[in-house]
Write a structure and sequence with these properties.
The chain is α/β, with parallel strands linked by helices. It has 7 helices and 7 strands, in the order βαβαβαβαβαβααβ. The protein has a single domain, classed as NAD(P)-binding Rossmann-like Domain (Rossmann fold), CATH 3.40.50. It binds NADP nicotinamide-adenine-dinucleotide phosphate. The site of NADP nicotinamide-adenine-dinucleotide phosphate has 29 residues, from helix 1 and strand 2.
Length: 244
């Protein structure tokens, strides 16, 4: 079984990715701070039908100091790491002029610095083990913008820049690096958006609806699988045509 680390796999998109990977024959290693009821249920189901295909490792990804140790332990216990899905992020909103600096720092720490540092240590193993796949979860906000989400948007745009350069850096070592840019999806992160606003966002998309976490998880599975072996350094948009 290929090991794939899925950060933020306890809820929302990450949980859907982990569930899908476990069903498709991978061993998904979920990282989040806390176990959720949904993840516990998914793990119990996976254990019944595909034993060993879903693992949970509690870890706070803002704890940069311990990332090297986390990766070392994962590699020692699970074996070679085939894939890394940098999905964990927070979506704090607010007008930049009013946003406390501590909040700006926290957003950039979790959404940008942490995935870059985690990727650094995982990629070192991938180089030694003969290759791998990295998928960075960005957002269409990284190229469109949305009032009140300037810092979040900056972090998501940074994932795209990171993807393009790293793909060039590690391509000859057999490592593919891609980004995925989802549009609005109904998860905990977007619960605060009022229904009127949601309807407006959905109406404006080419397909008149939202993309769902399953659609994005499917695209990520494609970027991890054999059919995308010659795809690297790209950004795959899954937004029901919101940016079409
Ligand atoms: N929802 C959308 O509309 C949308 C659109 C475009 C892109 N995205 C992107 O999609 C990804 C997933 O979003 P989502 O909507 O599924 O988010 P979500 O429902 O808020 O889930 C976030 C996940 O990240 C984990 N997490 C948060 N802080 C963490 C930390 N410090 N250390 C470890 N894990 C942490 C959470 O678990 P714990 O709290 O237990 O740690 C949870 O599993 C993000 O990268 C987001 O930017 C989302």
């Amino acid at each position: 079984m290929h090991n794939v680390i899925v950060t933020g796999g306890s809820r929302g998109l990450g949980l859907c990715i982990a569930r899908r990977l476990s069903a498709e024959g991978y061993r998904a290693i979920v990282i989040a701070r806390q176990m959720s009821d949904q993840l516990a249920g998914t793990m119990a189901h996976a254990e019944q039908f595909r034993p060993g295909s879903l693992h949970f490792v509690p870890f706070d990804l803002c704890d940069l100091q311990n990332i090297p140790n986390l990766v070392k332990t994962l590699h020692n216990t699970a074996g070679p790491i085939y894939g890394l899905v940098n999905n964990a992020a927070m979506g704090l909103d607010g007008a930049l002029a009013m946003m406390p600096n501590a909040q700006i720092e926290r957003l950039i720490l979790l959404n940008t610095i942490s995935p870059i540092v985690l990727t650094k240590y995982v990629v070192r193993h991938m180089m030694a083990d003969g290759g791998g796949r990295v998928v960075n979860v960005a957002s269409i906000l990284g190229f469109t913008g949305y009032s009140g989400l300037s810092v979040y948007g900056a972090t998501k745009a940074s994932m795209i820049g990171f993807t393009r350069s790293l793909a060039r850096e590690v391509g000859t070592l057999g490592i593919n690096v891609n980004a995925i840019a989802p549009g609005f999806m109904d998860t905990d992160m977007t619960q605060s958006l009022e229904s009127e606003h949601r309807e407006k966002v959905a109406r404006r998309s080419a397909l008149g609806r939202f993309a769902e976490v399953e659609d994005v998880a499917g695209a990520i599975e494609f970027l991890l699988g054999p059919k995308s072996k010659n795809i690297t350094g790209t950004v795959l948009t899954v937004d029901a045509g919101a940016t079409a």
